Amino acid sequence: MYIICMKTEHNQTLIPSETRYNSRAVRLCEQLLEDIQAGKYPPGGYLPAELSLAARYKVSRSTVRRAVGILAERKHLVKLPQRGVRVSAVDKTGLARFSSRPVSKITLAAAWAMWPDYRSIQMQEGIRRYAGENDLDFRIFLSPEGHEQTLEILNHAEKYGIQGLIVAPFRNERYFIALNRLVTMGFPVVTVRAIDTLPAINSVETDNYGSSYRATTYLIEKYRRPVYYITTPEGFCGTLERRVGFRRAMLEAGYDAGLVEQHTVVEEVPLEDPAYWSEGKAWLPGYVTGVKLLKQIELPASILCVNDYTAQGVYRAAEEQGLSVGKDVAVVGIDDIPLAQRLKPGLTTINSPKEEVGYEAARLLHGLIRNPGRPVAHVRLPVELVIRDSA
Q1: Contact of 176 with 197, CB cutoff 8 Å
Q2: Spatial contact of 365 and 192, defined as CB atoms under 8 Å apart
Q3: Counting beta carbons within 10 angstroms of the beta carbon of residue 124, is it exposed (0 to 12), middle (13 to 18) or buried (19 or more)?
Q4: Which of 102, 106, 122 is nearest to 114 (CA)?
Q5: Quick check: 144 pLDDT over 80?
Q6: Upper half-sphere CA count for residue 257 (Cβ side, 13 Å)
Q7: CA 132, 154, 378, 248 torsion: positive or negative?
């Protein structure tokens, strides 16, 4: 049975007599329509799960279910089995025109602002592998020259014909606002870097805390001396966790907080600067920092680098100053990209399973699309110390 909705001269929806018996559901229908018209639930996007709607509007889940049923019958909403409830698109006449025919395939997408280096490509391969195993489509929105394209995707994700989004966020307010908007509208999103200020967003990443903790502990135990840690400004969301892991290992080894701060060296170049994203320039911040550091510290010394590119820069700085990596200075990186094996001597580093990050992010996102009400999950994949000749 189709229910025809009429409009009063005040543009208020008249509720047919068949539904007046359920006043709470009717009132919720009116509120949902108002919120849809106000843009809180954009056309083409998904409504939050029943439980979230019940909490938001202070009604029971059964009331939510009845209200959604009424609006679906009127074509304001579309129920998609195993996916959720989608807001119908609206044409210029104000009539719903969204097809109730389910999309033939679920489409996952990844959006990140970064150069397509080994780490990002590995994550893409993981997503692609999961998509292939589960008959899903996959798109990648890559922005190697800046943040604007990625932010455009985040701010209008519901218009790109995708059902879910995997994001590599930066620690800045524009990303936070865009991601919070997606969560509020119920659009499925998973980040590959956890955001402590947005705990409601599902995330998958390698164990950043464990990476720096394990590497620092290894250096302290082997050389019986404090470790210098070259880190980046806190543009990436994982940078803070790596700094905490380093600090914890140093404090546990008996070094006081003041010495830990003295041994924490921050690169001057912000990670948000696209000029240093390409593989050909990624080592420069580590090089500039390494030149200054190696002239100031007592040798021999131990240095942990926030990633393998930074370690490459330290290698170059040491070579220019006539120092031997592995003897005058012990160097450890994080990520274990192919570069780590090509450096001379081979770089001791932390293996971070980036392909598995992509695979798990796609699996988690697929689950959110099929079951929007599932609990928030924060997945941390274990890392491994790979010992070579640099330390």
Answers
A1: yes
A2: no
A3: buried
A4: 122
A5: no
A6: 1
A7: positive
Longest CA pairwise span in the chain (Å): 88
- Both tokens assigned to 79: 């129920």
pLDDT at residue 269, as a whole number: 67
Q: Are strands 384-386 and 348-351 parallel, antiparallel or unpaired?
A: antiparallel
The three-class DSSP label of residue 186 is coil
- Amino acid letter, residue 180: N
CB 363 within 8 A of CB 374: no
Percent of the chain with pLDDT over 70: 85
- Reading the block at residue 355, the tokens are 């392909």
CB-based burial of residue 383 (10 Å sphere; 0-12 exposed, 13-18 middle, 19+ buried)? buried
Q: What does the block give as tokens for 229? A: 């840690």
Do residues 72 and 130 make contact, with C-beta atoms less than 8 angstroms apart?
no
pLDDT tier at 241, thresholds 50, 70, 90: confident
Specify the amino acid at residue 96.
A
Structural domains for the chain = 6-87 (1.10.10.10), 107-206+355-381 (3.40.50.2300), 208-352 (3.40.50.2300)
For the whole model, what pTM was predicted? 0.70
Distance (Å) of CA 104 to CA 101, 107, 137, 161, 319 = 9, 9, 10, 12, 57
Q: What are phi and psi of 67, to 5 degrees?
A: -65, -45
What is the tens place of the pLDDT at every residue in 14-35?
334 333 445 788 888 888 888 8
Half-sphere exposure for 349 (CA within 13 Å, toward CB): 25
> Under a CB-based contact definition with an 8 Å cutoff, are residues 239 and 169 in contact?
no
Q: How far from each other are the two terminal CA atoms of the chain, in whole angstroms?
A: 74
What is the residue whose two structure tokens read 């009063």? 8
Q: Model confidence at 308, in pLDDT bands (50, 70, 90)?
A: very high
Question: Before 300, cis peptide (omega within 30)?
Answer: yes
Burial 87-96 (b: 16+ CB within 10 A, else e): bbbbeeeeeb
Task: Write out the two tokens for 170.
Answer: 């930066």
What distance in Å separates the CA atoms of residue 249 and residue 155, rounded to the nearest whole number?
40
**Beta strand pairing call for 13-14 and 107-112:** unpaired
Provide the residue type at 304 as one letter. L
